[in-house]
């Protein structure tokens, strides 16, 4: 297989396979979660669980109180850099937007590539810091499973290969681009079945906890 | 009589796993922030006390029983089953080092209600026979005697007599049609009878009708702490029956955290029906009286004081502003503790920890968090609204040789009650 | 022209002076990206080089490659180099026809066995040998037979190098490239549809100078010409960096000469010398004319999902696939939901109420303590 065949495969068959598993997995996981049901709360509620659930979806992304911020500073800061960085890199790079345009039929404006590049670097630094933290912090070292390191790699490889292919470093661009796309496909394949599923289940989790707390009148 | 078994425990966990739990487990990224929020971790530095790790067996069960991949792995013999040894090992994580305080649920960035899951985990632990002896004993006493501390009606009656003598007011018992049914915690009966005095006087001033019930005076619920909905339902059922029999409008949960959770929030779900009466914490009632102008105080508390928010009231109960409104009336020198309100640190003894001797050592260690909070304030008095917090605060301060008195908010208010006759006394 | 004549003799015969010859050597060096210090060595090599015999076979092709080469205007280095070889068989160009033509090939092969250069344009059909024959001989047979005595093979054009358009999906003739068939000879792939003329002659100049084939990339192409990416050498690259893209061929962006990425330019994955060597006597290359690169020097360029589809867009229809996967996920989800609900209903039905008498397991030591 030469680089052109490889590139064609990852843009074609590989993408098909990844999409099938990704979509299948996400839908399956949503069914697995939602059909387990949740008993109706019979206690007289103080607030609208529905409203508070949605509020929690948004507000959980904001920093908590300043002491929590101080105590979990490393996790919170690297977490923000990672997630904002991923957002910029995935959704604001012109070639990525044109990919979404190709799939969904609509696009949005891109930002200039060197800025995306900067975010990619920041995101990778954040991920390296997160890995270091995971390897050295007693709690994280204790909690971490093989899957935690595996999904770290699943997230890091698309970034580094994207960076290397953009800068035409290390390997021939076609190979690098192919590996980049393949690494994203691997990410898609494993996302619904690993803790990376938080990318979409977090909305459900936040909604449930927000509404349960909201019904008690607690701002979650 | 049947007995607990691993199978019953697992079946109970299977019953507990629902959509929120599945969403929570799907969303945890092992970020470790819950550990930073848990006083059992912050004060011991022990990573095994990380809140999400306390429900790890339940996570595996969820995966094995309720996901397609997990089911396949289980069918192929690739998954690790839950064993007796494992759950025995988990007892200290689930019971000794968790007060169900809910701080972890507040900080979790993906919004997992970890505390709620530990509560569910306890269902499996108790049904499986993995609950600590201390909580089993408390549950037995609660069901058989009517109080986890073994307080019987005669003891209450003796306290009523004292209170009637001290206040010069009659304490109503089993009065049908009263507005409020007042519940007490055993600790209030045995250690803090001032509470009974206080509400007697406050209701008298407010001109409200109220009653105690000889068949259901105990508000605490060991079933909630041990994590058995069946036992909790039996205990709540007594209160519900009493409230219905006496046709009261409102049942008042006393100065106790988990009792409020048990009756106010879990109660209707435990007995599977909506209540025909209201449930309020005493602070909610007092704040309502204040707003209606029925709670009149005079004088002020000179001491510099702070308020310790009981977890079950603030984070798990939504009673945050009421104590502050009430303190506003009498305490100009009130200062907030760091992290006060919904983010307040637990005293370290809630959720059954105080009833569990195995947890004594770690409970005292966890108290260091509260000690640091109080030390930084330089205050004369700590006010709270939970008898269990109060005992732990007293114990902890004594061990740490800190001489700060602890007061219940209700009783402090009563001390400043304006001595005038209620306008509607005759008509009430 | 005899095969024994050296290049120098040939050039002299054509009235090229010593000075002109050295100038030619310098140009050849620059084509091959060699330093000027190499010029004397090149001159020495070329002076004594014998004009090699070249046999040019054309299979499934459009003659565009030969056109590209022969349309280059003289006097050019390309032309000079073609004077320096003995093109013994090229059925488009040669005067002979029929049996005579084939005899010329056979004779050239016999005379120069082991020394001649075989140039091939066009792909070879494997589906049915009858799809393409010359004088009754299938392309496959002719290639195999002619390749046997070749010193080296130069595959010219994307059809000969990678199968090209004949191989495009669904590849009705079963077309393959030269390197798919010949495994035991050095092959230089000069891809492009067509290749840049100077690239073809550059390879021949290299062979004449050094008697070897140039250094090749992983696709068998001379690195000298295929080492650079069109995108990297593109004068519109700054617009790509700034995120300024033409969205249609007649919008403002197109008029301002913005990047053509979104209009399907394959520059980022195309390796060729177009952006530097340019076409039509160095006039321009396609992007300068306002059209994206088609990636014609790359394998499968016809099947990369569409010339006007951005490179980052899927080469296939993903939406349809996703819709099926959604359905399958829902079916599997409903299945697992039914199983889960049954499991939950079962444990609820079998639920034995936990009383205070059920809080201990059957642990003899504990039971005794309890009883006492």
Automatic annotation (TrEMBL), chain A:
Transmembrane segments: 6-31, 73-94, 106-128, 149-166, 186-208
Protein name: Nitrate reductase gamma subunit
UniProt-listed InterPro entries: NarG-like_sf
Gene3D superfamilies given in the database record: Transmembrane di-heme cytochromes, Chain C
Highest rank taxon of the organism: Bacteria
Xref: SUPFAM superfamilies: Respiratory nitrate reductase 1 gamma chain (SSF103501)
Keyword annotations from UniProtKB, A to Z: Membrane, Transmembrane, Transmembrane helix
Species of provenance: uncultured Thiotrichaceae bacterium
TrEMBL record, chain B:
Boundaries of every 4Fe-4S ferredoxin-type domain copy: 90-120
Stored InterPro entries: 4Fe4S_Fe-S-bd (IPR017896), 4Fe4S_Fe_S_CS (IPR017900), Cys_rich_dom (IPR004017), Helical_ferredxn (IPR009051)
Presence of the UniProt keyword Transport in the record: yes
SUPFAM superfamilies assigned to the protein according to its UniProt record, in alphabetical order: alpha-helical ferredoxin
Any one GO molecular-function label of the UniProt entry: oxidoreductase activity
Classification via PROSITE patterns: 4FE4S_FER_1 (PS00198), 4FE4S_FER_2 (PS51379)
The protein, known as: Heterodisulfide reductase
UniProt source species: uncultured Thiotrichaceae bacterium
UniProtKB/TrEMBL annotation, chain C:
Cofactor(s) named in the record: [3Fe-4S] cluster; [4Fe-4S] cluster
GO molecular function: 3 iron, 4 sulfur cluster binding; 4 iron, 4 sulfur cluster binding; electron transfer activity; ferredoxin hydrogenase activity; hydrogenase (acceptor) activity; metal ion binding
Any one GO cellular component localisation term in the record: [Ni-Fe] hydrogenase complex
Chain ranges of the Cytochrome-c3 hydrogenase C-terminal domain: 226-304
Transmembrane segments: 21-46
Chemical reaction(s) catalysed: H2 + A = AH2
GO terms of biological process kind: anaerobic respiration
Residues annotated to bind [4Fe-4S] cluster 2: 231, 234, 259, 265
UniProt binding sites for [3Fe-4S] cluster: 274, 293, 296
Coiled coil location: none
SUPFAM superfamilies found in the cross-reference section: HydA/Nqo6-like
Residues noted as binding [4Fe-4S] cluster 1 in the record, renumbered to the chain: 62, 65, 159, 193
Name by which UniProt lists this protein: hydrogenase (acceptor)
Species of provenance: uncultured Thiotrichaceae bacterium
